[in-house]
Please model this.
Amino acid sequence: MYNVYKNLEEGVMVALLIGMVVIMIVQVFCRYALGMSLSWSEEITRYLFVWSAFMSVSLCTKLTINIRIDQIIRLFSKRGRALVKIFNLTVEFAFFAYMLPYAYRYLLATIESGQVSPACGIPMYLVQSAPLVCFALCLIRIAERWFLQWHNFFYNEEHRNYEELKSVKHSSFSFKRSSI
Model:
């Protein structure tokens, strides 16, 4: 279960990309080999793309891929870097926490309208739920990194993720144990 959670965004994005590619291959085959076009392929591909765009926000949040100036951050000590990152994560968390209720209201409005897609008849709330789901995932990923940075601050360390932290703790534990 942990591996599913750890690789959630990557797995969903791979599935969405495979879906888009397969649908487009079928569309090209039908159009040029069979001489007929599928009416639903472009619409489904667009909706998969919308979901992949929002999932990429969560993935970038998880992998700490954002716009920043690393040279300035490197001027600080380990604790200073941790504090700058904590401040940055707090601002990011506040932004997504601010956006989450709006995404929820937007989804409720879509559900109440009963709108369906024109070609496939898919309920539009399935597409419009992408911001809510992905903003919630962003909040979870930011909270994880926020607690990691507090650990880095208190222990004057610099770990990028929990796997790195576990390996360091494990190796230091075995070192202490062997020296006793």
Remarks:
- Residues 170-180 have pLDDT under 50 and may be disordered.
